[in-house]
């Protein structure tokens, strides 16, 4: 095949009103033709249709009616197709479930779709058993390939039902399928697709790839049939009366043998890098692949090298490349020629022109069309577009323009010949040094490097550029690549501000079967890899990072830098329980700290099941989001309240620039994203079971309003956070009530506990006697400082807090030389003591016309 046939010659599906109708017509026209080949078995159209009719009759007998949702959880197999057409004939709604789903995901799919029946494979019995008890509304649970506990065996049940053709449900605008999206971020959304939408999609697909004109019509599908791409191809092929060769997984011998044995003419393997794995088979040359006429790939992950290799491997084929979405149904397609690959023509980066029955255009932020060559958002219009998101009317409304075009969320441009180019997702635009960088453009260039098999680009926070371009690559076998080499390669191909500023090499980027990357997961893995290297460079020996500090339960201290090049450290603790590990205070958000904790977790093979936070400060809470799993963060209900820094320090007489400094430090000290995380809010005296260990919460405000200590009574173990520090007294940043009185009460609470071992937020472990001594000294320290303040006020009254701190305790020139964080610490603690002295009656205040609070000694 040298070119695709004109799409205008395709057969029309416009006269059908149910997606099963073209299949039924094909079964009537050629009942003995092989419809499906799977696992060495061949099934004719008559056999597949008859079994589908029996399943349809069974579902009807179980009370399934038009509009009811029926889910199937199946690998690639003939049963999946039989079940799908049975659902369609009845007018019910098919809910394909990803075959890789775990129990919580299956539960989510069933709940979100309101499924009433579930059909599944015995290989997924354990997942089904774990999920079904959490889902109300399931009337029937049927196993398609045998008897398993808690489910009915479909096979014997079907013997009771006729294989006669049922009366076909025919409403083209009725819902046919709820397809969960496989997007790159966020929870899967449930796209509602009608019979008309899928029929239009089938026609557009076989019109764009020319399958309708292929004489052989033997189609090999390796991607999951429950995925939108797999569904699109099997629906299109069976609508034309083609033979499907199904592969349930990537097995190069099975795929190559099937191509040779069944004379396969069309193949679709996903993701695109799967072709690279296939072509790396050591005995590739032993197979006859001359029957292949078309090789299908999807947008994302294809490079000129892959295209050239495909043409060498399949000498009689052409390569078709497509872009589309679950929501849009159809999209763009393009034949990638051998000449494009060898000459690296710019059009090889295109995603093609719109498929038949699809309109596309590029618009600006106001929805107005932009000229050719200008990047904007791609929007599309077609009968193939979904109806909306199931149960999410607001999200649906936001996805469509006022005149009915679907907003793809993809940034694109169109050239003067009508070819579209993908620049990236709207939310993936990188703002680097004030310039817009489109990830798609950079990814295309990086993939052209001969060492690179696949690539992803994202924006990484940068103190100078705001965002810097970060590249993550998967290399070809045996290849190597440095950042300097990649930057040199990009020179002349990309503007300087678009070049990657960092490079991470991963074993695999993990594209799914649609060729999509789960970007958040790749970014997490990239950051983990860089952090691990940073920690190894700073502290190569693990015993510099990890120390066991308690045996029952086993507790390990992870020592992490507060700042990347700072000597001061913070302690995180990993506590081994009977149900996983408890992580206490994950540490500061810098690469060395991040990498240190990663190395510790990996060495201990710790499965973190709970994360506990002693208090708000960033050197303890900065990495919380990285380690938070399905369980919520355990933190104080009093933490992360509204700050009064500006109000307090302005009234205390500090200059405006000093107040701004303190307010900024407060914002950085308490990361704003932490209170947005799912949290279990606790308070004094709460009894918890974390990682299977019983413990008690002890509220200890003073250092911060939301400070907590964690006490394990059985082991007499106290995690004291920054409430009790042994090298220096903790600063008092609390802003609620009387901070010093609160702190003294917190010291009393800790003193009342039966403690043998104290594990503080900074420094080494301490024993019972050291704790008792330290508690007494901390109280005496504050009492002594308060007496000094009373004397100082008496000598200079009336006096503001700022005057006391800056003028009377240290010369101004020395104060400005004190580090900003230290100044904030001194000012906050001094202000807390003054407020306590007022509350206790030792001092009094007046507020002058300037609004400043001045202190004087209370007269008797």
UniProtKB/TrEMBL annotation:
GO terms for molecular function: acid-thiol ligase activity. InterPro entries: AMP-bd_C, AMP-bd_C_sf, AMP-binding_CS, AMP-dep_synth/lig_dom, ANL_N_sf, ATP-dep_AMP-bd_enzyme, Metallo-B-lactamas, RibonucZ/Hydroxyglut_hydro. SMART domains: Lactamase_B (SM00849). Keywords: Ligase. It comes from the Bacteria. Residues 569-762 form the Metallo-beta-lactamase domain. This is Acyl-CoA synthetase (AMP-forming)/AMP-acid ligase II.
